[in-house]
Amino acid sequence: MKLNNRVLRRLAAVSLSLSILSGCTFISDPVLRMKAPELSADKASLMTAITSHMPAGASLIRPVSDDDSSIFTEDLDKDGTMETLVFYSTKNEAVLIHGMILEKRDDVWEKKLVFDGGGTELDSVDLRDVTGEGKLNIIAGYSRGVEKGMVVYSYSGGELEEVLSQPYTKYMVDDLNEDGIEDITVVYFKRNEFATITTYQYNDGFKVLDELDDLDPYFSNYYNIVSGKVAENKEGIILDSAVDSRSAYTTVVVMENNKLRVVIPGDARTFKDRKIVSEDIDGDGVIEIGLLEPPKGWEYFDPETIPYFNSYYKWDGKNGLTFSALQYRDPSDRFRIDLLPEWHENVTVDTKSVQDKSLKFILSNTGETVAEISFFSPAEWERVKSSGWKILGFDLDKFIGYRGEVEQNTSGGDNNKITSPIERKGIDE
């Protein structure tokens, strides 16, 4: 069904007025790429220097895991002179990826060295002090298909040295043993063969702090790995494993007394019939594990028709999980509703609801409707848009509408309107 010009104009106006909450990221490793204040004015001469020192036919490349920049400018060895690091690719050569470092001397960018990278793609680049020497190391990840290799370089006095080289599925720079010194943890997985986690720390060379080599390798792949706070004041790693194309489970690993320990194994407690990314869902700095829970009353429906909730839990620091947050996420990722945490186990979805048509969220104890989602044709939308409906998104020729608020008594006895936060997909992306 085609939209008329009047509707299109209204959609354009709506798309400009709605903001989109930031989406999920795959892995939360920070990348420090501090650009020198003078780089903006120096950009033209820097680009000229870079292109003049690259071979004919070569092209700048940026990390696959980051589309922000292909030029990294920092004082790598902290000698007061700025360096610029770039990577470029060449064709029809035995080595396809090359790194180049330039130094700025008397307002002129000079080439200091060129080094070869492995693989066919530049997977990641981090600039971090992982040797504790007060200098920024270059951590580069290279890939060739599913195989990846990570190299840590130390740059000083115009010389580049490899100080660590390891195959990996994912590497993370963190402080797992919380001794104030950054370490590197490498997750390495090959389906049906092995799944290992190894933590390295620099002490006159990189040494293995500990290794887990008995993890279950019998799953499809890791679809999400994230490091950070896994409980209050506790660093760790959360690994989301895809069992097959749909189902998944989650494992939590921490380090205690320089020993890696699995505190939440990938078992029935963290199994879900749909992949859910572990993340800091409530913004308190602690990463939550997502589980799939059917609304009350839907337990015996066809699983394909159930409008599941995403319930998020924190590791309790012992052997269990505690509830944190509640969401409804559209299976096709067109929208999301954040429901009040106190509604957990009390909010459900009317069993007359049908996905891709209409959903009604109600409180089990009162039957009160707190939110509605509905799909409208353009003509239907024209009729209902003035009755409290807001646009969540679009699906082909359908408008996806939302409305909902509930009178809730606060501790002070006042009545306040509480509207569930929402994430709109496909409006002004």
From TrEMBL:
InterPro entries, per the entry: Integrin_alpha_N (IPR028994)
UniProt superkingdom: Bacteria
PROSITE patterns listed in its UniProt record: PROKAR_LIPOPROTEIN (PS51257)
Extent of Polar residues compositional bias: 410-419
Region of interest called Disordered, as start-end residue ranges on this chain: 410-429
Protein name: VCBS repeat-containing protein
Organism (species): Paenibacillus borealis
